[in-house]
Amino acid sequence: MPSLSVEELDRIQTALEKDGYYVIRGLMNSDVLDEAERELNKLVDTIARQQKEANLTDSLFAEEPFDKRLAKIFEGRWNDVPKIFRTELHLSGMYNILFNQDLVDIAQHVLGTEEIRLYPNYTCRPKVPGATEKHTVLWHQDAGYTQSKSWHALNDYTDEQLRSALMCVMNVWIPLVDATVQNGCMQFIPGSHTTGVQKHLEKKEYLELDPDVMAKCLDKAVDIEAKRGDVVLFGQYLYHCGLPNVSDTIRWTFDFRYQDAVASTLRHEPGHMARSALHPEKVVRDGQHWAQLELGGKNPK
Predict the structure, then answer these.
(1) Measured between alpha carbons, how far is 268 from 41 in angstroms, rounded to an integer?
(2) What is the mean pLDDT of each run of 10 residues along the chain (301 residues)?
(3) What is the distance in angstroms between the CA of the first residue and the CA of the last residue of the chain?
(4) 35: which DSSP letter?
């Protein structure tokens, strides 16, 4: 049985339509987050051993807590810290975050379809203290990346395919540690999702919304602080950025998207089915099944 009532689902949809985002407090079960954290700890342990074998660090820092260890391994070498993890997320312990049934229920309600795919752009980000421009996400709309042919989009899509791909997506952002102003939480411009896709400038690491556009609304920016267990939902058109991390801990977060599976991904990868009445045999069944698949829905390993 769904754990969210129809009234709660309606409230989420109304907020997304009005403000462009909604924060659900305490939705994620701590066991699910712990499971993902254990998988990431194994990944960090592998990285530590690789760095030590390459004589780039003299310690594995195994005694350091999850929110500090990766930064210790790369201390003084901030440009070498991994910016994102994607292919590495095909681990069984990630399944219950990426295919969380409460989130899929919300996506079905918001998108108005039972045909839900996990869009082929799912990411875990370790924003380390003192992050360089490599880890500082500028003001942008995700739609700016979707329509940019220089950011992994197909080159032969139609205007209708683009419109459909942008409209039929729900973004999900989940902190594994409390996200605060100090450690680099997101900022949103409420209501900015109604303006359509705005001009973006190409920067070294990211796209950036035209400063002339931002100058008119920057005073409306709100900090999106979120506790471990909270979930932040927003759309493709919302103006948002990530603040710099000025704390002494790592801000670990997941971000991914659910899309109406009828729409094009505008990528070479088809994504992974999270729910389907038409093709239930294509739905990712469990963690073991997820671990056998490849990034974006390519052929199984």
Answers:
(1) 31
(2) 84 97 97 98 97 96 97 91 94 98 97 96 93 78 75 60 76 98 97 92 86 96 98 96 94 97 88 97 97 78 41
(3) 33
(4) H
